[in-house]
Design goal:
The strands form two sheets. Strands 1, 4, 5, 6, 9, 10, 11, 12, 13, 14 and 15 form an eleven-stranded mixed β-sheet that branches. It is built from ten helices and 15 strands. The protein has one domain: 3-Layer(aba) Sandwich (UDP-N-acetylmuramoyl-L-alanine:D-glutamate ligase). The radius of gyration is 18 Å and the shape is globular. By secondary structure, it is of the alpha/beta class. Helix 4 packs parallel to helix 5, helix 8 runs antiparallel to helix 9 and helix 9 runs antiparallel to helix 10. It starts with a strand and ends with a strand. The chain binds 1-O-phosphono-beta-D-fructofuranose. The site of 1-O-phosphono-beta-D-fructofuranose has 17 residues, from strand 2, helix 1, strand 8 and helix 8. Pfam families: PfkB (PF00294).
Length: 307
């Protein structure tokens, strides 16, 4: 199975409003609630692609129960979440129907005690034994040490399980230094990590800091991959209208799914680009439009960079 770790799980709430205006009161036209946090989105997409996925991380309180109830209804995803005494957070995505723009409000998450963090690490070590790959995704809840991902990367490497890291800030900086097989930063995360606003220079710097391979999502410029096998650029397809929340998580699912299906880098990147775009046209994170995915997969161009 593919293991996804979401230390800061969330009940994702999406509101659609005709037009979002600061200082105004809004009538919500549609509400959706989904089990979320980045790794849960990755797992749902992997399951939809036919992979067996297991999710772990912390879960607690009434929001945690609601998250688990909804997760139990998702085919192909096993729940190996670890209890925490505080309540799982909510995140709110507000979609402005007049522009298609999304505004995201993410709660910090429950406080995690040293004993809860130790219990998680024990559970994680056990799960690594049956994992063919692991994805470490999203922000850290309060109380979890800032070097948590570095610790989890090292444990995966010691167990010879390929490990992908998708986070930001100091947890990313320390996690990269622990030498994950792959990191997937966006342009903002790259700039924060390296201090460079020139994305290609920042990608090279990230690899020098320890990551074996880097796949950067550069918005309208698409994906840029720097790997031991070479460098590739995969331009994004024409801008699609919709909700971009979770598009990066679908790219992670595409990269992992391609790796485990034995695909080469260009085909993994094509999956990532097509899934990411197909997520924008689906209503919520962790879902994708299958028709759009198939159509784009046949059309995505991935170019080798030779300089
Ligand atoms: O606060 P984090 O952990 O960075 O991000 C959490 C989150 O906004 O990311 C997903 C989209 O990628 C949402 O489903 C989720 O709630």
């Amino acid at each position: 199975m593919i293991l996804t770790v979401t230390l800061n799980t969330a009940l994702d709430i999406t509101y659609r409003v005709p037009r979002l205006r600061p200082h105004a009161s809004h009538r919500v036209t549609e509400v959706t609630e989904r089990p979320g946090g980045k790794g849960l989105n990755v797992a749902r997409v992997l399951a939809a692609l036919g992979h067996e996925a297991t999710v772990t991380g912390f879960v607690g309180g009434g929001t945690g129960r609601a998250l688990r109830d909804r997760l139990a209804a998702v085919d192909g995803v096993s729940d190996a979440l670890v209890p925490v005494s505080g309540p799982t957070r909510r995140t709110v995505a507000v979609v402005d129907e007049s522009t298609g723009d999304t505004t995201q409000l993410n709660e910090p998450g429950p406080h995690v005690s040293p004993a809860e963090w130790a219990a998680f690490q024990e559970a994680y070590a056990g799960l690594l034994g049956s994992a063919s790959a692991v994805a470490l995704c999203g922000s850290l809840p309060p109380g979890v040490p800032v070097g948590a991902y570095a610790t989890l990367v090292r444990a995966a490497r010691a167990a010879s399980v390929p490990v992908l890291l998708d986070t930001s800030g100091e947890p990313l900086r320390r996690g990269v230094a622990a030498r994950p097989d792959l990191v997937k930063p966006n342009a903002g995360e790259l700039a924060e990590l390296t201090g460079s606003h020139e994305p290609l220079q920042a990608v090279r710097d990230t690899r020098r800091r320890g990551a074996h391979a880097v796949v950067a999502s550069l918005g309208a410029r698409g994906l840029y991959a720097l790997t031991p096998d070479g460098e590739w650029r995969a331009p994004a397809p024409d801008r699609l209208a919709g909700n971009p929340t979770g598009a990066g998580d679908s790219a992670v699912a595409g990269l992992l799914s391609g790796l485990l299906d034995g695909e080469d880098w260009p085909r993994r990147l094509a999956r990532a680009v097509a899934l990411s775009a197909a997520t924008v046209v689906a209503p919520a994170a962790g879902e994708f439009d299958a028709g759009t995915y198939e159509k784009l997969l046949a059309r995505v161009s991935v170019d080798r960079v030779t300089s």
